[in-house]
Specification:
This protein has helices at 18-69, 74-94, 98-121, 127-146, 151-185, 189-204, 206-213, 217-223, 237-249, 265-277, 302-307, 310-318, 338-341, 346-349, 404-409, 426-432, 434-443, 456-462, 486-491, 513-517, 525-529; strands at residues 228-233, 257-263, 284-289, 355-359, 363-365, 382-384, 421-425, 467-469, 475-476, 494-496. A seven-stranded mixed beta sheet has the order 3-2-1-4-7-6-8, with helices on both faces. Strands 5-10-9 form a three-stranded mixed beta sheet. Helix 2 (74-94) runs antiparallel to helix 3 (98-121) and helix 17 (434-443) packs across helix 18. The chain is α/β, with parallel strands linked by helices. Helix 19 (486-491) links the parallel strand 9 and strand 10. It is elongated, with a radius of gyration of 47 Å.
Length: 533
């Protein structure tokens, strides 16, 4: 191989200095950064323009509010027209002018579309584009005024309408009261059937009569003052049976209980038959009829004397007096029934007794009542639960305080009390001649100017200052007409179905009927025969 000469050298290439390369790279980077910066500025300008435009639109939207606040704005004028037109639509419908109401509603929609379009484009309405809508609406509003839809006329019309509705409501309320009273006074077919069946049984089955006569020991119990004596005055057999049965079921010593039942001639045999053929846990039951009380006559009893008056007979029985101004409930003949007024003659009915508990036939007993006989009445005659927790149950709601006799003798804010469960001290009754007090007030009410309804008002007068308040749990009322607090029901000793909705009637309050019905044996053959269910 040929070797090069020692001093031979290749020609040296000329190289670019490294500093120059670095300078060129730096220049390119600067150029690139410059280009990026310029592009960003170019793109940022439209964005800024967009934000500015958006703010301008918001400001234009705010001008709509300014339009509404401006007194000479067409937007405000349209809104005012719409508000007035809406009121006229209601009035037109009330007047049964449905065509005009439709025209107003259509024009309201047209005006609302205009306002909606203006809000959407963010520019105020012009007079030119709203002129047609304002003119058409103005014509309709003028027409409404011609139809007497202006405020003054409508106020008068509404007043007349309100008065007509009040009269209609009073008429319906009166009819409802009448029909309710009629329904409350009806004798259910099943109850009538039971009376007929029992009366037939009494006269057909001589063993029943013999069984009653064989109870000689009953005579001793009836007059035994150490026993717990209760009295019920009723012509309703099944209701009286519930009172006796519920009392017996809840008594700690039913053998110590004596029930004195007083009925009328019509139901006497049926009542005797029922309480002879059925046992009530050893409770002694005495049945009497008030027609056997010889002292109960017109010369002694003001109510019987008043019944002989032709005007009284016409008021209660004909239904034609005073042009129907007096509500039907005030003219119920039952308020003249001796079974109702017999409560004022208890010492005469039971001359041998010193203390007795009076029970209405529409009550249910759910506690032992023996403690009632140990209550100290503090020299008073009547132990009763007061009912003046509300204003309604004070004396001024029951009595006529425009009468001088009432005004002079009784405090109008005195607390009322309830009949239905009362403890009577017959010794104090006789001593204070309470029956004589009752006679005085009954004789002064011949013209019905002292009170109108029932036996409670004369009771309030008779026992005024002679009543001892009892714990409210002894006697809970309202099951025949209203809702009762469940806690009161649970604590109550005697539950009273006072009111028209008696539990044995179809109009009875359904949720309270079980409290009463559980004391009836529906499997009894006579009850099944008479379709009791």
């Amino acid at each position: 191989m040929r070797r090069r000469a020692t001093d031979f050298r290749r020609p040296v290439r000329r190289r670019v200095p490294d500093a120059l390369w670095w300078a060129l790279c730096f220049a390119v980077v600067l150029l690139f950064i410059y280009i990026l910066t310029k592009g960003t500025q170019i793109e940022s300008r439209p964005a800024l323009s967009k934000r500015t435009y958006k703010n301008d639109r918001i400001l234009e939207g705010l001008n709509i509010t300014d339009e509404l606040l401006s007194s000479d704005s067409v937007t405000r004028q349209l809104n005012d027209q719409i508000s007035l037109a809406k009121a006229f639509v209601v009035i037109a419908k009330e007047s049964n002018n449905l065509q005009f109401a439709w025209e107003l509603s259509a024009q309201i929609r047209n005006s609302q579309i205009l306002l909606s379009n203006a809000a959407t484009r963010r520019s105020p309405l012009t007079t030119r584009e709203s002129e047609s809508a304002i003119r058409d609406m103005a014509l309709l509003l003028y027409q409404a005024q011609q139809l007497h839809y202006d405020s003054a006329t409508m106020i008068m019309r509404f007043k007349a309408k309100i008065q007509a509705l009040e009269e209609q409501m009073n008429s319906v309320s009166e009819k409802s009261s009448k029909y309710g009273q009629i329904a409350a006074e009806e004798v259910p077919k099943s109850l009538y059937c039971l009376g007929v069946q029992l009366t037939t049984e009494w006269f057909r089955d001589l063993n029943l009569q013999k069984k009653l006569k064989d109870k000689r020991h009953t005579e001793m119990k009836i007059k035994d003052r150490n026993r717990y004596h209760f009295c019920v005055f009723s012509d309703n057999i099944i209701a009286t049976s519930v009172v006796v049965n519920s009392t017996a079921k809840n008594s700690k010593n039913p053998n110590m209980i004596v029930f004195h039942l007083v009925t009328d001639e019509i139901n006497y045999a049926a009542m005797k038959a029922w309480f002879t053929m059925n046992d009530f846990r050893g409770v002694t039951v005495e049945v009497q009829k008030y027609e056997d009380f010889t002292w109960l006559n017109a010369s002694y009893v003001p109510v019987l004397k008043q019944l002989q008056d032709s005007e009284i007979q016409s008021y209660y029985f004909s239904g034609n007096s005073d042009d129907g101004k007096t509500p039907i409930k005030f003219r119920n003949p039952k308020y003249l029934s001796m079974l109702n007024h017999l409560r004022f003659y208890i010492p005469e009915v039971f001359p041998a007794l010193k203390k007795i508990v009076f029970l209405d036939d529409d009550v249910v007993v759910q506690k032992d009542l023996s403690d009632l006989f140990s209550i100290d009445l503090n020299g008073n005659v009547n132990g009763a639960v007061e009912t003046c927790m509300e204003t309604f149950h004070r004396y001024h709601k029951y009595l006529n305080y425009s009468h001088p006799l009432i005004k002079a003798h009784f405090d109008p804010d005195a607390c009322g009390w309830a009949y239905g469960m009362n403890v009577f001290d017959l010794v104090e009754w006789r001593k204070k001649n309470v029956t004589g007090i009752y006679h005085y007030w009954q004789e002064n009410n011949v013209d019905r100017t002292l009170w109108k309804l029932g036996t409670l008002p004369p009771g309030l007068l008779t026992f005024y200052g002679l009543t001892e308040p009892l714990d409210p749990s002894w006697h809970v009322l309202g099951f025949g007409y209203t809702n009762v607090d469940p806690q009161l029901i649970e604590r109550g000793a005697v539950l009273h179905f006072n009111g028209n909705s008696k539990p044995w009637l179809k109009i009875g309050i359904e949720k309270y009927k079980p409290l009463w019905e559980k004391h009836i044996d529906y499997s009894h053959p006579l009850l099944q025969r008479c379709n009791f269910h």
